[in-house]
Amino acid sequence: MEIFSRQICRDELKIVHSDDPDPLRAGLGMVCFPLMKRALANGKNMLWWWMGLAEQAAIVFILDQLRPKIAIEIGTLFGGSLQALSKYSDQVYSIDIDPEVPKVIGNLFANVRYLTGNSDYLLPPLIDDLQQNGAELAFALVDGDHSANGVRKDINHLLRFRPTVPFYILMHDSFNPECRAGIRAADWENNPYVQAVELDFVPGVVNPVPAFRNQLWGGLALAILTPEKRIGRFAITGLAELTFQIASRAVQPTLPQRVIRKGLALPRRAIRSLSKKLRTFVGPYVKGFVARHGYRLVSDYRAYQSETSKCRERLAPFCIGYGADLGFGGDPISDAAVRIDYPNPYTAHTGMYPVQLGGDASRLHWFADGVLDYIYSSHLLEDFQDTKGILIEWLRVLKPGGHLILFCPDQQVYEAYCRTHGKEPNPHHAHADFSLRKVRQILSQIDATEEIHSRDIVDDYSWELVVAKRM
Questions:
Q1: According to CATH, where is 3.40.50.150 located in the chain?
Q2: Architecture of domain 307-469
Q3: Separation of first and last alpha carbons in the chain
Q4: What pLDDT is stored for residue 341 in this prediction?
């Protein structure tokens, strides 16, 4: 109860300044204001709501307009948003993995049913039960598992429900790269009742709080479903997509910062001093070394030059819209690409970007048919025995007109290069005759693409090919 007591907002107007001693709240600014307290608590104490004021206002407005008979919340935490759902809804289902939630706030809301456990297991039977009973599910808030895969699963479970009334789905932290990737990957387009998906109904922020400083958090995405089937074009929109991409690049830490964060327990002043010295003395040395040895310096001083870094300037212009980098190995073709690889890629030394969707690129189960604008893959296709099956799967997720962008080795040229330079060939390569010609032949058998760009033997031993999926 002591933990719960500090989650009460007793002030009508509350401002948390940057010098607040709480590292989870310092710098949040205005966190409570009189109108919200009047709306939710009739002037009484309200539960601390871990969302920005614009997010709170948006949720209260939608709930007030909908007045849902049935609502679902995935991820309850301390009950901040639940107090809004409870006030404006007839019946609320709260799903949270923490068994303490119903113990702490279970007696506060008479119209809330608490379900404890993993939403991946709890949502499907709940949705099926609501559907069978003809329930008027009108609102859902997705704020639970913040991994890309977790967000995608929660949304897809909700999309199993065929709406009987207008159904609004809000997804919190849509500005976070993981959450945003999960929202994009959900099976929206194949659900005929989805009318619109806006990633930035309320845009997020670069977090100022010490515990999460310079991380992208917050924001609300909004999806609208209706009982009537969609007519006309569907596309996920994002008002703040450009802002998101710029912010993503701006907050990427430098190599000195990464080294320091990974284990140097030094006083703050010493950390700043060391970081400055590394930039001053090591930076020019690295630039000089790279220039002398003929490599193009990548901005974050990666330990090794990735294959993608060699072709980025040529192939990135084909990676427009919403797409994925398969087997990115730490260095994606662009900051906006969904990053897919094994959870621990064997090529992760080429960059520091984390995996967003972990798994085998031979089966892109995260994506429905025809949802991506592009698939990019560097030095991965040659690792699979069933080249034709892999290409069919990758083409499956592309929209008509979408680009498949391949950058791969010519195996014979690659082996000769390795012999000349005293290197061991990559043991993962599965074909002795892998080449641009071989892949072209396989694509002609599939007969679903048009070639729009190619180059044979570039960057010592590689080839590149861009094809468009036929309309």
A1: 2-250, 307-469
A2: 3-Layer(aba) Sandwich (3.40)
A3: 60
A4: 87
